[in-house]
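Technical note accompanying the year-one report. For the benefit of new consortium partners, we illustrate the data format agreed upon in the data management plan: each record pairs a sequence with a structure-token string. No post-processing was applied to the example shown here.
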Amino acid sequence: MKEFSTDGLKINDQPVLPNKVTQLKIASIFAISYGCFHLMYFAFLSAVKADLSQLEIFSAGMCLAVFLFNHWFSFKQNLEKYVNRTPNIGNILFFPFARVLPMHLTILVGSYFDEHSTGTLILFLSLKTFADLTMHLIEHGYSRGKAQHI
């Protein structure tokens, strides 16, 4: 990887250097923690809804296709803008966790709705849309007129 910043990042209360060791340590921390979150979400969702209809599987596949296309398009559109920046590796580590908050809240608050409630879906989609919009605005610098070096 090219240069990155470690401004404000500490491990065991010690500042870290922007080197390959830090890069590998941060990548490992991210992969394990973020992967565990999503593994738990998958287990939770599998336990709640194990028997999907063909329509539900098709709908989920279409949503996944739209999601992947949207992110591919955004990546292609913004790649040139981000090639010459120096990202902060601490922000890269923590930024994605803001997107899992809607899943936590839906699991906790959604349990008050009926198991097959449209309210749970509306709650999740509202929280997820708000989180994604907020992260998009921060990432692309609309909040203060400049990108946040994510």
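Partners are asked to follow this layout when depositing records. Helices lie at 20-48, 54-83, 89-94, 101-110, 118-139.
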